[in-house]
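Attaching the record inline, Q. Sequence:
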Amino acid sequence: MIRRNVVNVVIIFVSLALLLGVAGIIGSTWCSEAPLDLKQHITVQLQLPLILTACLVGAALSVSGATLQVVLRNPLADPGIIGITSGASLVAALLLLLTPRWASAYLHYLLPLGCFVGALLSTFIIYRIARKLLGSSTAVILAGIAISTLSGAVIAWLYMFSDANALRNLTFWLMGSLYQTNWLILSVGGPLIAAAVALQLHFAADLNKLYAGELAAKSSGVDVEKLTERALIVCAVAVGTAVSMAGSISFVGLLVPHILRLLIGHNNRYLLPLSAISGASLLTLVALSSELTRAITLPVSMVTATLGGPLLILALAKGQIKG
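Structure, as predicted:
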């Protein structure tokens, strides 16, 4: 009963946070003295895509982080920390800098596909290393560091041979931005993220059985290999599409599931949907903070890393996260 009450309180809290973010973003325009037509244009063409992007990307990163932590048996399995985001970002950088002009009109369609390929390759490299070393937490983290380092090196070489305008756009995009999308991009990436998140929610019951170990999961009827491969592919779709829409955003997939586990426990039937709502609420509030500072557009990853870094250090110091 106590745990159910905590779940209800968390649902109410994150829902109110989401509503606050949405109301704040839209209200910032309608409280101004701009003409009605201009207010409608800003709301429909700029702010609604911003809100939807924040919700979709936040949900994708949070749910994928929670799923990866179970599948890889590692509490630090955030898409950014273990290199999945880096793989997607590398392919995105290649497409942004090397796509010829005649193909630039198709970039909205190429980015989700390319980011998915990069995320999928990174995911399976990490998975194979983890399986070969019997799921060692250290191996997963080191593999992620290696992928991130290699991706960063390739992107650095791309910087050397690109013009100033492309570099400025790429730099801001790699720091994360919710302002790069529009209705066309959402029409491509939105259904992919929605389907990927829905599939991860569908895996929740089987993911719970992995807590007892592979043998116990198999004895209860779970095909562990198939579940793992499907979960990794779905996470790669979610993360790759999120990166293609908003760039590289760190710590969301680590902190949101971790905080929720401290509050409501490890049951993925509650954890995964709440991770989706909480991730959406967090990025919506980040978008609101950027809207309120109209002089500058805050890079999303700068805000999430500023919040997430100290919390991660505190959790490690208290022994709340163990490899």
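The radius of gyration is 20 Å. The CA atoms of residues 42 and 208 lie 44 Å apart.

More tomorrow.
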